[in-house]
Design a protein that fits this description.
Blueprint lengths: L1 H18 L2 E2 L2 E4 L4 H7 L2 E7 L4 H19 L5 E6 L4 H6 L7 E6 L2 E4 L6 H12 L4 E2 L3 H8 L4 E7 L5 H11 L6 E4 L2 H6 L6 E7 L5 E3 L6 H11 L4 E3 L5 H6 L4 E7 L6 H12 L7 E6 L6 H6 L9 E6 L6 E2 L8 H12 L21 E4 L4 H5 L5 E7 L4 H16 L6 E7 L12 E2 L1 E5 L6 E4 L5 H9 L31 E2 L4
Parallel strand pairs: 2-4, 3-4, 7-9, 8-9, 12-14, 13-14, 17-19, 18-19
Antiparallel strand pairs: 1-2, 3-5, 5-6, 8-10, 10-11, 13-15, 15-16, 18-21, 20-23, 21-22
Helix pairs in contact: 3-5, 7-9, 11-13
């Protein structure tokens, strides 16, 4: 019966390849052909994209190359794409809230794609999902074939492939989608990789020390941790392609180095940074950000870094509240960097909160200007109800809201107990108020200091109703339910199409 099913899929795929339009190897799907393709294709990865989305544009060549490489291999795995702006019903059906969104369909059933955004990462993830967790290796040639074009591979070497150790290895392999695993009981390979007992695991990589040998207990969790800790370089450069590895990894404490690659001091600074990284392997991820790259400018802005402060380091935690830590030194020696990170680990560092100086005319206009230094005095004044807009100067929605917000402030200017205020959250931070997207509107109630999120329509009528109801009439999705539908500006300077999330910068 299984063979018959496979034949049906095979013949259906041949028919579809003739009828479904392709762009660079990727099937072009829409309302008219989507269901037919999904129903007739055993394995297909589908990207829901928007033509103006910067992240989609960056993914496009990697995605197309993955489709082409799989086709060259004769793989039955297909890649498709849907313009979600032209096929809104499909996007709604599959709950597409951000671009790009990738869904993997196995025999018509959709699951979330959880891999990276490079060609190799896409292919590795798909092969793991459609094949065995580990490739069987019979010879040194098989090892070289597995390693071809891969940065990292993991090889399990077992005298008995039915052993408990081998099963733990396979369990770990099945849970790690982006990295190729191989498995062998070949005696020559066990000798080549110096396996002295019954089992061995080696991680082969094309960077740093080139090889890591496992010496822990044989359980899937410990093996997975070993692979995670050794599968990234001591220092990883932040790029569009590496972002998934950096932010999606198990290590949630990152030390960031900001320096320009073309600076005279670059190599010395980088070498010092890398020399410190080895002491914190698996605990703190060391990330290099090229400050000369224009697309990284928002990251510098997020940390409040100016060009004359480079090179510089910042430490950030990604679990829970995103706390940032700033060193009290400028000389980036290896010892200074080690001491800084060790101080964080021992709990001796306090988070760094950016703030501007209080403007002399901060309360001159109907919309009051708040900064870190005067926020508490104004927002937590128990005699006032204070509505605060947390914004970013470059945010298109913030710009669109500005005239409405000004009009709102004028409307309540004569009120004795209502204040309309705003704060630039790219240059001012608060310990007890976390801002995840722009614009964010929060209402600080007098007497109790209760904070109410405004999630209603951004109209004068909606905001007025919210204030006059004492913060009760502002229904709508919460910040956590809002998803970013495009955090890039278009080639012609078009504005954002939805909230820009701070934690996705």
């Amino acid at each position: 019966m299984k063979a018959v099913t496979l034949l049906i899929f095979a013949f259906a795929s041949i028919a579809l390849s003739e009828d479904v339009p392709k762009e660079e190897g990727v099937l072009v799907l829409g309302d008219s052909n989507f269901q037919e393709v999904i129903d007739s294709t055993e394995f297909i990865l589908v990207e829901f994209y928007a033509p103006w989305c910067g992240h989609c544009k960056a993914l496009a060549p990697e995605y197309a190359k993955a489709a082409q490489d799989l086709e060259k291999e004769g793989s039955e795995i297909k890649l498709g794409k849907v313009d979600a702006t032209e096929n809104s019903d499909l996007a709604a059906k599959f709950e597409v809230r951000g671009y790009p969104t990738l869904k993997f369909f196995r025999n018509g059933k959709a699951t979330e794609y959880g891999g990276g955004r490079t060609t190799k990462e896409i292919i590795n993830w798909l092969k793991k999902k459609t094949g065995p967790p580990a490739t069987t290796l019979e010879s040194a040639d098989d090892v070289e074939k597995l390693r071809k074009d891969q940065e990292v591979v993991v090889i399990g070497l077992f005298k008995d492939i039915e052993s408990a150790e081998a099963k733990a290895f396979l369990e770990a392999a099945g849970g790690m989608d982006d990295i190729p695993f191989g498995m062998t009981s070949n005696a020559e390979l066990l000798t080549t990789y110096e396996v002295t007992g019954n089992s061995g695991i080696v991680l082969l990589k094309n960077f740093d020390d080139l090889k890591a040998v496992y010496d822990g207990e044989y359980n899937s969790e410990a093996i997975s941790t070993f692979v995670t800790e050794n599968s990234l370089p001591l220092v990883i450069e932040f790029t569009e392609q590496s972002a998934q590895k950096i932010f999606g990894g198990a290590v949630k404490v990152h030390l960031l180095l900001f320096v320009k690659k073309d600076a005279d001091h670059y190599q010395t600074t980088y070498d010092n940074f890398k020399a410190a990284a080895g002491d914190f392997k698996g605990k703190v991820l060391f990330v290099f950000i090229d400050a000369a790259v224009e697309t990284n400018s928002r990251i510098l802005e997020y940390f409040g870094l100016k060009e004359d402060e480079l090179p510089s380091i910042r430490l950030i935690t990604l679990d829970g509240d995103m706390k940032k830590y700033k060193p009290d030194f400028e000389d980036l020696t290896t010892d200074n960097i080690k001491t800084f990170v060790a101080s964080y680990q021992s709990g001796d560092l306090k988070p760094h909160l950016m703030t501007e100086e209080i403007p002399e005319d901060w309360d001159k206009n109907p919309v009051k200007v708040l900064v870190g230094k005067n926020f508490a005095d104004v927002a937590y004044d128990t005699t006032k109800n204070v509505l605060v807009e947390f914004y970013a100067p470059w945010c298109g929605h913030c710009k669109a809201l500005a005239p409405i917000y000004d009009e709102l402030a004028e409307k309540f200017e004569s009120s004795d107990d209502i204040v309309i205020a705003k704060m630039d959250s790219t240059t001012n931070e608060l310990e007890d108020v976390q801002i995840r997207s722009f614009p964010t509107l929060k209402y600080f109630l007098k007497e109790t200091n209760e904070v109410v999120d405004y999630n209603g329509e951004r109209t004068l009528e909606g905001l007025t109703k919210f204030i006059e109801s004492g913060g009760k009439d502002g229904s709508g999705p919460s910040d956590e339910e809002m998803e970013d539908l495009g955090d890039e500006e278009g080639d012609e300077g078009e504005e954002e199409t939805e909230e820009v999330k701070k934690d996705e910068l």
